[in-house]
Amino acid sequence: MSVTEEHPTAEFFLWVAASDRDGHKLFDANPQSAFAVFCRNRDGSRSDPHTSNGSKAADDYHTRAMIIGAREAFERLPPGASVHVLSDQNWFLQIMSEDRALRMARDYLRPNLKSKYQYDEEWRNLDNISERLSLNITADRPKTEAGKNTLSRVKEAASQCARNIHISHGDWDL
Predict the structure, then answer these.
(1) Alpha-carbon distance 88 to 102, whole Å?
(2) C-alpha–C-alpha distance, residues 21 and 163, integer Å
(3) pLDDT over threshold 50, residue 53
(4) Cα 141 to chain center, whole Å?
(5) Mean pLDDT confidence for 167-174
(6) Neighbouring C-beta atoms of residue 21, cutoff 10 Å
(7) End-to-end CA distance of the chain
């Protein structure tokens, strides 16, 4: 798979997905979700195995889990890296594509300046890591069939992890 077809100058390609444990239920008193991330180097090889295989639960909806997944993956990238984030979540891609300096200067108010981003503290944490590591971040939907297939597998991994929250690994419903 030539990942450079997704973005010609990125060094790392990060697919991010998340899933709610019991499907998306509004106003769930105890929402839980899981994320999965997959990272490839520019040459198409897998990056750090922690980001390639990381799936984890979050005590909240999948929207928060997406941000946590990206942040945890960013923490494992080398300083100065150029990373292209791939997802099918428009809200996530839109915020990831914004200039983080402007987002930080607005104190995480939406561009209309009327309300803060949902999970503004998680965005702040992600931006602090991105700034500390001087990451160059771009984001988009997968363009290639291979990229779309990879995202499908990452989404399935997130769903599988969400279905198995609080179940010991050996007893997972696969």
Answers:
(1) 24
(2) 5
(3) no
(4) 12
(5) 57
(6) 22
(7) 27
